[in-house]
Every structure is written in C-alpha cells, then in structure tokens.
Amino acid sequence: MRNRRCRLLCLLSIILYFVTLSAPVYAAAPGNGKPAGSAGPEETTTDLPSDANRLYHIPEDMIIYIPIRPLVEQLGGIIEWNSADSSILIISPDGRKISHVPETRVLYINGTQTDAALLSVLQNGVTYFPVPLINQLLGNNAEYDDAANTVTLSSPAPETDQTMLELKRSSELDFYLSENLFRYMDYLTLHPEYALSRAIAYVNAGVDQPFFSNLREIDDPESTLVLCNKHHILPTDYEPDDLTYLSGTAQRLRSEAAAAYEKMKKEAASEGYWFTVYSGYRSYSTQKRLYERYAAVDGADGADDYSARPGHSEHQAGLAIDISAGVREAELGHTETFRWLSENAYRFGFILRYPDGYSEITGYQYEPWHWRYVGIEAATIMHDEQIPTFEEFCGKYLIAR
C-alpha cells in the first residue's frame, strides 16, 4: 500500500498563476481554470504584489500556483487557518504537521523550522502554493497539461489512520478550534481511549499541556464559572468583595454561592442528611502557608497531588467548600450523605470538583469533600450530559465560545 502510487487528477476549479522571464503574471478565474481576461497577454492582474516578477520568477521556467486547501483535502490531509499567528496548519496524508505563514518563507515541518522552496501567494482570502513547494511538503510529483489546463499529481496512497479519521470528524463539533489542530492530533494519538468530543474539550481547556506550564492569568476572577486549576492562576491580590459568612460557621463564600449552599443544606437536613463546611474562602497568603507546610512534609511533587499552589486554589475564588459529615475525609465518599449530594447538589449549582479516576485531568487526587459552586445552569448541564470534570465543561461550553 505504502509503495503504491496513485494518480489524482485535480479538476478543482483551480486558479493557476504563471510566471515566466518575459510574460506577465496571470490569475485564472474561479470555475474554469483559465487566466482571467485571457483574450491576450496584455491583461495582467492588479492585485498581486507589484514585485511579483522578482519574487516568483525562475529563469526559463513556468511556475504553477494551486489553491492549497482543496488540494490537501483531495489528497486526504487536513488543513486549517490559525488566526492567532496568521498561519496555515496542515496535516499531510502521511501524518506530518506542517505550518506556514503565507507570502513568507516561514515553514515548520513537525516543529522543525526550514525554508520554503518558494513563496506562496495569498489573494482574496485564498492561499496558493507553487508546485515546487507542494512537492517539497507533500512528496508529490506534479505535471501540468497545458492543452487540458489540468494538473496531474502522483502521490503515495496514504494508509487509513484512525487518528486522522477522528480528527476529520472533530471539525464537526461546535467547540472545535482550528488553531488547536496539531494539539488535537497529538492528544488523540496519546489517548485513543478518550471519546472524540472529550479529547477535543480537554485540549481546549489546556489539559494536554504539562501542569504549571504556559500559565494563563485569569482575567475574570469574579465569574462564577472561573476555571482555576494548574493551568490558570488567579491574581495574587484577588479577594472577592461579596464574601458572606455561612450560618453556624466561621467560613465565608461569595454571596451567590453562600445562598445556594444554605438552601442545599436546608433541603438535605429536611431529608435527614447532615453536613457542614469546615473550609470556605482562603486568601492567597493563607493558601501559600498551607501549601508550604505540606510541601515541607511531602515535597512539592507530593503536595501537588492534594494541595493547590497559591493562586491556583478555588478557595481563593470564594466558590469552593470542603465539607464534613461526621466521618473521616477518606470515608466520606462511602456515606449516604455523599450519595445525596451526588444526586442533588447540581440542583443548587454545586459539582464534585475532583471526582475519582480523573486526577490526570483535574490535577488532584479524588476529594469527595471538595464541592464547587458553578451555578445551576452549568451544574445541570454537567449532570444531564454526564460530564465528570469542570475542565471538560469549560472546553465545550466556555473556552471555545
């Protein structure tokens, strides 16, 4: 299969650019593949760079420029536009990751920088690659038939790859982000056990990145949907301005979260279940002292499994509670109180923040005592769609929108 060559006849309404030593530059009209205003060589285009002959001229040769998107898709690859750095992202049929900034020689293949053989052209929102560059990147042999005005490409027939098939399906998801194309591919390759939608959401939320790398400071800490974890950090001086004491405790929460907690506790009590909060809001300095104490005992790596570094704690956001139900923390998950919370907390806007079996996503070990207020709407979506982690919810409903 790999050694077999297939010939692909590209009749894709191709727009061709011709450059010769003596002839002017032509742009073909969409639909028929023939030069615009092809009545005579005097009708040249006006929207190409004024120095096009100098930029694209090869002595005694004609260079053909082909729209790269339909070509890549015809060959079985994937192509996206990355608006963050105005680059094209291509996954070739053989799985190579190619990024290129149009009209420059900036070219990366699998993360390694190289020089493009020739400049590409960007015109009217469409990027055209010269055939020599296409051959360089995709391993083709292109031949132009002047009489038929077609380009015939000889290319290795790619083997069917499950990751590539999944990746093509991912673009149909509402929360797909084209700039994450390469990261999606890497994560799907590493984690074939994840459902496609879950893997895409994880990448959107930054879960594919090592913890504490590429940290992003939270710019809206007042939001009840703030994502505070090992990838996102609160401002050092952030303190909510609406902290409210919970009845019967010395603990505080944001006012909205506090009101929801009081309702939840009251309904639980009416059904015979009791619990209380032993830790609510914590300042940056308090979290810093706690973390340093744990790290002195278990080392930073050990402490990171169960304690948030300062600035990374949801307690600083005033939205997290640690609850007690009259048993040891480790036993809480086996109680009827925990079962009631698991079945009902979402109705009051609370979620179990660090569920069992998801430590590589959340960054923390299972904590049946740690509950987070996200609001009734978000909590209900997570419950109804069986989304186990807040990271996945954010990757689907917040970060991609």
Overview of the structural elements:
The chain has 401 residues and is α+β, with helices and mostly antiparallel strands. It folds into 2 domains: 5-156, Copper Amine Oxidase, Chain A, domain 1; 205-397, Muramoyl-pentapeptide Carboxypeptidase, domain 2. Helices cover 29% and strands 20% of the residues. It is built from 12 helices and 21 strands. The chain has a 5-stranded antiparallel β-sheet. Strands 18-19-21-20 form a 4-stranded antiparallel β-sheet. Strand 8 (106-109) and strand 9 form a beta hairpin. Helix 5 crosses helix 6 and helix 6 packs across helix 12 (390-397). The longest helix has 21 residues, at 284-304. It is elongated, with a radius of gyration of 29 Å. 35% of the residues are buried.
